[in-house]
Write a structure and sequence with these properties.
The chain folds into two domains: 40-61 and 166-355, no CATH class; 72-163, Immunoglobulin-like (Sandwich), CATH 2.60.40. A hairpin with a 7-residue loop joins strand 1 and strand 2 (91-100). Helix content is 59%, strand content 17%. The strands form two sheets. Strands 3, 4, 6 and 7 form a four-stranded antiparallel sheet that branches. A three-stranded antiparallel sheet has the order 1-2-5, with no helix packed on it. The relative contact order is 0.10. By secondary structure, it is of the alpha+beta class.
Length: 362
């Protein structure tokens, strides 16, 4: 049979007419996929909010049950000014206070804090006094004397309280991101599967975008840090200080911190802030607005618990770069997870070196 014989059969045989698939069917399928993704995104956002609220509520209940009593004030915190007699440091301050643990269990850490202020209200010295493992019925005594070159005009209100161990907070935060990440993977398996196939299809380009994305993040953080300093902010945020305080030389702590910072936080946050929040604003206002708005939300959520909103600037810049990389990678979640991983892993190494008192020369 000739290769072209079939071409001529249509002239002398009854042709079999195949009805083309109507365009409306493809449009219906696309619309169904679109609405399905919207439902999945809403479900994941609800899960993220509920899990965070639930973990916060349970930790609060845990505190109330374990520590039903506040610290008892045995001697009210006071500060007195006096002349030191030292011409180099003429101003002397003395702070005294006594508290008692009226709980039936040992308190891992009790603390007293205040700020010493100048005549203009500027903070001269932030003071925090701590004691670890305050046993039942034991007292926490503060008797502090210090000398200053600048006169202390006043002090902020004394605040005091107690806290759990760092391991407690590591487990709380780790459990939150693990639960969210696993639920996201279960709910949106199709998205993760298709994104992974696209990632493997061009691994060189995918890895290149991850590395390029991190370079952009590094540059953005450099600019953002400079802006923060110009506006009178510090070189680190309360969120960063809180993370740094969780590090220790304990191997278990370091493993848990690695899992929290480098594995599950990138998964949970990229799904929420990029796929869900970026996707929401992208559908309504386009990618530029989505990059800006999702970056702003990402930044604010990292500082809102501490109130140091000026420190949101680096996080906003970082979130905007993550959003751009997400768009640049054709919305491949594994690319932005990779950029987030590198950023957090470098921070992890930095805090690890600090925990072991290793100087890195910066």
């Amino acid at each position: 049979m000739s290769d072209y014989e079939d071409l001529f059969k249509k002239f002398h045989e009854n042709p079999v007419i195949q009805t083309p698939q109507p365009l409306e069917s493809n449009q219906d399928n696309n619309f169904e996929d679109y609405t399905k993704q919207i439902r999945i995104n809403r479900k994941m956002l609800v899960i993220y909010i509920v899990i965070n609220l639930l973990v916060s509520l349970l930790s609060g209940v845990y505190f109330m049950m374990k520590y039903p009593n506040d610290l008892s004030v045995v001697a009210t915190p006071t500060m007195t000014n006096s002349a030191s007699g030292n011409p180099e440091y003429p101003f002397q301050i003395t702070i005294t206070a006594t508290f008692r643990n009226d709980n039936s269990v040992t308190i891992p850490e009790a603390w007293l804090a205040t700020n010493l202020l100048s005549d203009t209200g500027e903070v001269i010295d932030p003071l925090v006094f701590e004691i670890e493992n305050l046993e039942p019925g034991a007292t926490f005594v503060v008797n502090y004397t210090a000398y200053y070159t600048q006169e202390i005009y006043s002090y902020s209100e004394f605040t005091y309280g107690y806290d759990e161990t760092n391991l407690f907070y590591i487990l709380i935060n780790l459990s939150t991101v693990i639960i969210c990440s696993l639920l996201f993977l279960a709910i949106d398996k199709a998205m993760f599967s298709s994104n992974w196939k696209a990632f493997k299809l061009e691994p060189g380009k995918s890895v290149g975008k991850i590395l390029g994305g991190y370079v952009m993040v590094y540059a953005a953080l450099f600019v953002a840090s400079y802006i923060v300093l110009l506006l009178g902010g510090t070189d680190s945020s309360a969120n960063e200080d809180a993370i740094a305080s969780m590090f220790s030389q304990d191997p278990l702590t370091l493993v848990l911190m690695f899992l929290m910072l480098c594995v599950f936080t990138p998964i949970a946050e990229e799904v929420i802030y990029r796929k869900v929040i970026f996707g929401f604003f992208d559908r309504r206002f386009g990618p530029v607005a989505a990059i800006i708005i999702s970056g702003a939300i990402f930044g604010l959520m990292h500082v809102i618990s501490y109130g140091d909103f000026i420190q949101a600037i680096p996080y906003v810049f970082m979130g905007a770069i993550f959003g751009y990389v997400y768009y640049w990678s054709k919305k491949n979640i594994f690319v932005t997870i990779g950029v987030h991983f590198i950023n957090n892993f470098i921070s992890f190494l930095f805090y690890l070196l600090l925990a072991f008192d290793i100087s890195i020369g910066i």
